[in-house]
Specification:
Elements lengths: L11 E4 L6 E4 L3 E2 L39 E2 L14 H6 L3 E2 L7 H4 L17 E5 L11 E2 L2 E7 L5 E6 L21 E2 L3 E4 L5 E5 L12 E6 L5 E5 L4 E5 L5 E5 L19 E4 L5 E6 L5 E6 L5 E5 L28 E6 L4 E6 L4 E6 L4 E6 L12 E4 L7 E6 L4 E6 L5 E5 L12 E6 L5 E5 L4 E9 L4
Parallel strand pairs: 3-4, 7-10
Antiparallel strand pairs: 1-2, 2-12, 5-28, 6-31, 8-9, 9-11, 11-12, 13-14, 14-15, 15-16, 17-18, 18-19, 19-20, 21-22, 22-23, 23-24, 25-26, 26-27, 27-28, 29-30, 30-31
Length: about 450
């Protein structure tokens, strides 16, 4: 099916379960773009949505590839910037970065710095935007700001969004009185099959709970439960696959700070270990931590802040920039994912970095990416490649409007794809992402109110 074609209207039935209604629908060097402050004489340690699984590691045992590296710093020279090709602009293909080639990012007007980057080890993944995914909605639905996307074990894609993030003119048929025949806000949660067809959609009536005006982050765990963060309500909600609420973590409208074991700040993202059934929450925005709960009972287990230390809400952030030391505390713990070898990857959005931990909170490594980025930062979400070793870590950058490709074993930046724009394969404020079992990447955007699929080619596939 091609864009603009009409889908057969799905069979829709209204259901009001006890906890809410829904619709049933038929490594070698460090540099200034990625430097551990420990390697520059500062604190910390040196570098060493959703199909990932985790194996708990003892605190004393790290994978052998997490080794110490010597820094080699370079500085930005804007005069060395080069322009990107028309093919790359149109297709959103990966650009490989070695030497001054990395300065391509400066040609886009994005903050960045020159990189003396090692040659990538082996082939790199490339990505092509899929024009046929998802299929057009048949119900005049329009998405608002898409603030969560996840892939489950069936390679079904789950999306949640905030209709309040959409424009009034887009929802003309929903106004009172209607001003047009189109359109209406899409249901709060939508499940797509691998071909992009709608499987089911939930309209969250909030019977026994309050559905947030801004849902934030979604994850489908190994038991087929759907987790959704409630940014304004300070809660984490767990549903079964039919949309029935089964667990609430946090107190409605109450936040106790970064060291409160029972209350959440504004949870941004979550990941559940299939081996321990522990849910790891990136409790960003209001708080400065990762917090862990029992996935069945919601009982508090542990929490930690940046570098595995105790979070400090009184900490005052210093100046931002590539020449400044990284912040001691999380800026915005915004995206989280676990790997098969038991590590956690946290996207610290405002601080332009990824931090790596063992599941007990032991700090392993960090990587700064485009550290000169201001505004909300360069690290919005993280995902992993689908090959057996999960060689690549993907980092979504909602300010520079791209997805960075990092080698997971040393966190070297080896490429990126996407650019700012409204066309196929481009981004405006990309917000969340996940990968499926084939290595394809799914992205959500807050500004353009859409989801996209990028088909993997080459490395990074099973």
């Amino acid at each position: 099916m091609h864009p603009g074609s009409v889908t057969t209207p799905p069979r829709i039935s209204r259901k009001r379960p006890g906890a809410g209604g829904h619709w049933n629908v038929g490594g070698s060097r460090w540099h200034s773009c990625g430097t551990s402050w420990a390697e520059r004489g500062g604190y910390g340690q040196p570098l060493a949505g959703f199909l990932a699984s985790g194996r708990h590691l003892a605190p004393s045992r790290l994978p052998p590839h997490h080794a110490r590296y010597s820094p080699r710093l370079t500085r930005t020279d804007p005069d060395e910037a080069t322009s990107q090709s028309r093919d790359e602009q149109e297709m959103g293909m990966v650009r490989y970065m070695s030497g001054v080639g990395f300065l391509l990012l400066l040609a886009l007007g994005a903050p960045g710095c020159a990189v003396d980057s090692p040659e990538p080890e082996g082939d790199l993944p490339t990505f092509r935007a899929d024009p046929d995914w998802p299929r057009p909605f048949a119900e005049n639905w329009v998405l608002g700001a898409v603030t969560g996307i996840a892939v489950d074990a069936r390679d079904h894609v789950w999306v949640t969004h905030s209709p309040s993030g959409g424009g009034g003119a887009a929802f003309g048929a929903a106004q009172d009185p209607p001003i047009s025949t189109c359109c209406v806000p899409a249901p709060d949660v939508i499940e797509f099959d691998p071909d992009g067809n709608v499987v089911q959609a939930w309209v969250m009536d909030g019977d026994g709970y309050e559905w947030p005006s801004i849902p934030h982050g979604i994850f489908v765990d190994h038991t087929d439960h759907v987790w959704i963060g409630s940014r304004p309500n300070h809660q984490l909600l767990k549903f079964n696959r039919d949309g029935d609420l089964v667990l609430t973590i946090g107190e409605l409208g109450v936040s106790g700070g970064s060291n409160d074991p029972d209350r959440l700040g504004t949870p941004a993202d979550m990941w559940v270990s299939p081996e321990t059934n522990e849910v790891f929450v990136a409790d960003g925005y209001g708080n400065r931590r990762i917090i862990v709960f029992d996935g069945d009972t919601g009982a508090y287990l542990r929490h930690w802040g940046a570098y595995g230390e105790v979070p400090d809400d009184d900490y005052e952030y210093g100046p931002r920039g590539a020449d400044e030391p990284p912040a001691r505390q999380f800026g915005t713990a915004h995206g989280i994912v676990g790997s098969r070898d038991g590590l956690l990857y946290l996207a610290d959005r405002r601080n332009n970095r990824v931090q790596v931990f063992q599941q007990d909170g032991t700090f392993v490594a960090e990587r700064l990416v485009a550290p000169e980025t201001l505004s909300s930062g360069s690290a919005h979400d993280v995902a992993l490649s689908a090959d057996a070793d999960q060689r690549f870590l993907y980092l979504m950058d909602g300010v520079n409007h791209r997805i960075w490709i990092l080698q997971r074993h040393d966190l070297e930046v080896v490429g990126h794809f996407g650019q700012g724009g409204y066309q196929l394969g481009q981004f405006i404020r990309p917000h969340n992402m996940d990968s499926d079992s084939r290595g394809n990447i799914y992205s959500s955007e807050a500004e353009t109110q859409r989801v996209q699929r990028f088909l993997v080619q080459g490395a990074g596939a099973p």
